[in-house]
Amino acid sequence: MSTLRMRVAAAIAGGLLAAHGVSDAVEVHGSARVYGGATESDEVEVDQLDQRYTLNLLQALTPWLSLGFSYRVVELETTTDGGQDFERSSRDPLLELVYRRPRLDGRLSFRDRRNRGTNPSDNLDLQALVGQLRWRPIKGPSYALQLRDETNVADAALFGRDVSSRFLGFESIYDRQLWGARYAYQTTSIDNQTTGFRLDEDRHQLRGHYAQQFWEDKLALTMSSWISRREQTEVSSAGARPATPITAREGLFALDTTPEIGELDPAPDLVDGDTETPAAPEIEIGGANTFRNIGVDLGLGRRVTRLEITVDAPSAPDLFWEVYHSSDNLSWVRVAGVDSAFDGALSRYTLFFPETTDRYFKAVNVTINTFARVAVTEVRALAEVDRLTSQEGRSTTYRADLNASYSPHERVDATFTFGIGNDEDLAGGLLSRDLDELSYGARVEVGITPKLDLRVGYRFNSVDERLEPALQRDEELWSATFDWSPLATASGLLTFSRRDEKEGNLLIRSADTVRLRLLTELFADLELVSEVTWSDVDDPFGGFTQKVWQFRESVRADLTRDWSLQGSISQSYFDSTGTVVIERRTSADLRTFWRATPYLSFSGDWDWSDDDLQRTLTQRYGAFYSPGPKLTASLSYQDTESTDIRRTTTVGGGVNYRFRPRLTPFLNFSRSTFRQVGVEPSENLSIRAGFNLFF
User: Is beta strand 663-676 parallel, antiparallel or unpaired with respect to 142-151?
Assistant: First the structure.
């Protein structure tokens, strides 16, 4: 198929030459980003040159047919005093033929990306021929056809390098006012001669949905369902180490220098499947940006043997990682025996560790990165699986969901949900399962008075996975919330909740939580929030019980039109047994922003915590100067110290000057130091200068 891909690409290029002179002028645009600099780490100097170019051409052949060409080049060169030089390059041409009519459109594209580097792991060729065709008649269903012929584009963690894949898909969609249906057929062939793996798969899927309102729109009913049938044949080498990805419920992240205890916040972009775009807000692990807690919530306790951390730029292959697991996203246990490997071509860290079963997992970077700027794009959990040398599989999967909302009165709203699902793979192929799922729930909101609302909810979810390792988990959640707003400037929220998790008839974890939140607007620009939380956790599976009292006071104030201030202080008490040993934790944070002049502003952040394990203080200061539309300059300082055991300090700054509307030269610098008891201090100094050009 590689020869076919090249022939198609040549045909597309021939079409462009044939059309020259008979159509509009070629649209040309692109960009260039070039910068060089030096990084000195522990008296070892590394000179670096980074070049990134893109060129895009668009030629209209007819009013409906156009031809596009893009070319992206990335060049990275580093020179180390007295050490090994490093080079990495990427060439990524894309040729695309696009046809657009009001009800018919198609696209045929060819990509041939080549990565080359000093290290053998950086060498990788990626080729893809992709075709799409969509037809939307005036009446009746619409149709879509898609084909792909690719090399090294399929998931390398599942299938390994040097994998070829061929895909053909057909889809038909029919939508009416109240209901709709969709049928899809896919056939896939994946072949990896290096590892001896081959997979042939055919899949049929039928989806349907229905929605209607009754009784003067007081009752709304929606239903959706789908059924999928898959047949596959798989051949694999007995010595291969394949892994299967574990679907994540949520991505998690926090900056925490005490990884043993602390809650991670939701970060949806970490598990969105996009490995190219950095997560937002950006998670930076370059330079001295250590102790980034990058986690994943698997929904239930699952068996995990790997974590993958994907980044957007070259990174130090010897970066040291720690892995933690938790059952409650609060108390974390370190996993022993962690090993890591970095794939430069895929820009991905793979963390290997002994098989561990839990709901939450996180990776923490604990050493300075010799590359100054590296952002995380994705996190994924995987589990190694045993493969037979040859097997055939046949599976059927279905899912049905019902949702009903009823509003008999303007002050009463009720919602009911019900869902069932089954995924059965009789032979246990690549994605083998024997799983039943049942879920239902209800939520009622009642306006007791114009200023007092009551919300009551219940949710039940049952998962029964019968294949080894067998898993049967039931989860029940009750909640009740009173929302009281006696004044326009004051409101309160009182919540009671209970969560039980069972394995069969055995209660393995229960949690009771009571939370009171009071919001008061003392003045138009002064807001005070008081929170009290009590929780009681009993976790026989994790081997601990825990009672937690927490008080938190927060304030937000706009002192002047140009000066804002916000902060909080919290006190937590832990009465724990088993694996959790902390008894008390006090934390405080303060953030301020001051616009001194229309051109000059300052910011300051302070985060402090003190518990039985250690005391941590993080300070961040920044200054931003912009006297006009062309020049911007900034300075920053950050210092993190943990109980005289560990300290990281970073000073940085940058200057940008828009010399032309599309040309901006820049200069950045940073200096980081890392000190830890029992470890030799390390220092990292980085200076970069370059330009951005757009045309």
Answer: unpaired
Nearest by Cα to 335 from 308, 369, 309, 364: 364
User: DSSP string of 116-161?
Assistant: EESSGGG-EEEEEEEEEEEE--SSS-EEEEEEEEEES-S-HHHH-S
- Three-state DSSP class for 612? coil
Q: Distance from CA of residue 473 to its chain's centroid?
A: 26
**Comparing C-alpha atoms, which of 559, 564, 496, 490 is closest to residue 530?**
490
Q: What is the pLDDT of residue 10?
A: 45
| Cα–Cα distance list, 366 to 6, 159, 324, 345 (Å) | 46, 30, 13, 23
Which residue shows structure tokens 């699902």? 421
Q: How far apart (Å, rounded) are the C-alpha atoms in residues 351 and 582?
A: 28
Percentages helix, strand, coil for the chain, rounded to the nearest 5? 5, 70, 25
- Tracing tokens 């042939």 back to the chain, one arrives at 200
Distance of alpha carbon 276 from the chain centroid: 11
CB–CB of 357/383 below 8 Å?
no
Q: Which amino acid is at 562?
A: D
User: pLDDT per residue over 432-485, tens digit each?
Assistant: 567 788 999 999 999 999 899 999 999 998 888 766 666 677 889 999 999 999
Which residues on neighbouring strands pair with residue 533, listed in sequence order?
515, 550
Q: What is the mean pLDDT of residues 626-641?
A: 91
Per residue in 485-529, pLDDT (tens digit) is 998 889 999 999 999 988 877 888 898 999 999 999 988 889 999
Tokens of 98: 């696009």
Which residue bears the tokens 């003392």? 522
Q: Are 321 and 292 in contact (CB under 8 A)?
A: no
Place of tokens 């970073």: 650
List the beta bridge partners of residue 669.
Answer: 653, 687
Given a contact cutoff of 8 angstroms between Cβ atoms, the answer to whether 533 and 515 are in contact is yes
- The CA-to-CA distance between both ends of the chain, in Å, stands at 36
Q: Which residues contact 167 (CB under 8 A, 6 or more apart)?
A: 146, 147, 148, 149, 150, 186, 187, 188, 189
Tokens read off for 414: 């009720």
Element (H, E) at 74: strand 65-80
**DSSP E strand stretches across 471-614:** 471-487, 490-503, 506-523, 526-539, 544-560, 563-578, 584-595, 600-611
**473 contacts 501 by C-beta, under 8 angstroms:** yes
Answer yes or no: are the C-beta atoms of 682 and 671 closer than 8 Å.
no
Distance CA 421, CA 436 (A): 6
Amino acid at 591: R
